[in-house]
Amino acid sequence: MEKGQMMAALKERMNYTDPLPDEPHFATSDETIVRYLKSAEWKLKEAEKALLSTIEYRRQTRPLRLDCNWCHDRPGYHSMRQVGHDESGRPVIYANFAQAATHKNSVDDVVTHVTYLIESAKATMDVGVTTWVFVIDCTGMTLNACNPKLGYGMANILSNHYPERLGLVICVNHNPMFHGVWKALKKIVSPGTTAKVRLVRSLSKIQQVFSTFFSDALSTWLLKEIELNKQRPLPKSQLEFWAAPPATAVSAFNMSLPHDPRGCPAYIRDYILPFQRLQDTLKPSTSPLAFWRGGRAAAGGAGGGRGGSNSASSSCSKGACSDEGAVVPRHRPHPNIVDSLFGVVRSVSTSPQEQAERLDAMSGVEQSEDVVADALVPGNGTVAGIADVEDGELDDEDQVEEDDLYNDFEKRVDDYAKVKKIIGDQ
Q1: Which residues contact residue 27 at a Cβ distance below 8 angstroms, ignoring those fewer than 6 apart?
Q2: Where is the composition biased (Low complexity) (predicted)?
Q3: Three-state DSSP class for 96?
Q4: Does residue 424 fall inside a structural domain?
């Protein structure tokens, strides 16, 4: 059977399923059909089984309505957030361990937060864009983050219910702890998934990878954000990454506007500022969540593709579709950015224990003598201070630490994987 015939056959079978309440065309859209057939290596029965499973999953969880209460209750609980797009239009999602609260995460809170982000990121994707890019800054990584249940749980959701969505993962500033964890995790992650992960540590390689995939503006933003997040202790401006820099603040180095930790300039322009202007006209009658869900009579706003348009086949306004029964949310930034713009974000207070954990997590971070975000390396125009250590280059002490962590984590992964199936490609 030709691929076109398989697509038609799978779509015909999906026509007999009950439409999802918030997204009635999800199961029969060409984009969904192709992703599931491709993930199943164009085996019709396997693709049908996987898609039916996802339909039931989305019916039960209603991911378009998910919100991360962990972040609302404790601002900064998760640091992962969309910060821009790569040169191909794929959403770029950045996370830094030093910025996140050091609570011990659960599978539920991690899955909920990431689902919130990736579902929201879809509203910023133009036609033909189907995958995401993750930039993981391992600065401040703690043992609490090294839980096989977290890695397996998240990878399992992505593999089973978001197949062919993971485009690229770039890990920077990884330490011996990460090496030990990664070596063990590769035992339960498919080769197709691991092939999408790039580990880079040296300044030259970070620059090279960033320049390959990102615009100059996004590369510059990422380099500055990474450098600022290496400060000890982390300043309030980075700890509260959901807050805009003061409107009157100007860099003393070159009289430019200060770094905005919420995202690169294009992301702020296209998705933060439009919402900020619109929500000012709606307060206090509209809650953040109700506003972001959109609706049949929405009056436009931030979302619905990078240029603010929605490419659905029916008549759609910016971020909200008029299809009967459909709920197409506008793009939602990190929950604490939303709270901050609505003036309802809670104040952050860290306990002495948490402060000690943060400092301990940052103890191995290599740092320039003077941490200044706008300091440039003469001749190459990039931010200074990123550890210039070649990939895989570890001294004897680090190698021993990596081996010890690997042996310990490998046992934990093996124990956990005994009752789990090896996951597929994402």
Answers
A1: 14, 17, 19, 20, 51, 55
A2: 309-322
A3: strand
A4: no
Residues 84 and 216 in one domain: yes
Same domain, 286 and 205: no
Asked if 40 and 159 count as a contact pair (C-beta separation under 8 A), the reply is no
Tokens of 349: 């207070």
Specify the number of domains making up the chain.
Answer: 3
Given the structure tokens 């962590």, which residue do they identify? 405
Nearest to 272 by CA among 244, 291, 234, 250: 244
CATH, residue 195: 3.40.525.10
* Extended strands (E) in 25-178: 81-85, 91-96, 132-137, 166-172
User: Under a CB-based contact definition with an 8 Å cutoff, are residues 384 and 225 in contact?
Assistant: no
Report d(CA 313, CA 205) in Å as an integer: 42
**Across residues 324-349, what is the average pLDDT?**
80
pLDDT greater than 80 at residue 366? no
User: Tens digit of pLDDT for each residue in 201-246?
Assistant: 888 899 999 999 999 999 999 999 999 999 988 899 999 999 999 8
Name the phi and psi angles at 406, rounded to 5: -65, -45
CB 3 within 8 A of CB 32: no
Q: How far apart are CA 186 and CA 376, in angstroms?
A: 37
317 vs 404: which has the higher pLDDT: 404
Is residue 115 domain-shared with residue 223, that is, in the same domain? yes
Cis before 163 (ω within 30): no
Short-list 404, 260, 275, CA closest to 331: 275
SS3 127: coil
- State pLDDT tens for residues 125-168: 999 999 999 999 999 888 777 777 787 788 889 999 999 999 99
Helical spans, DSSP H, in 78-235: 107-121, 148-161, 176-185, 191-194, 203-213, 216-228
Which pair of tokens denotes residue 92? Answer: 């770029």
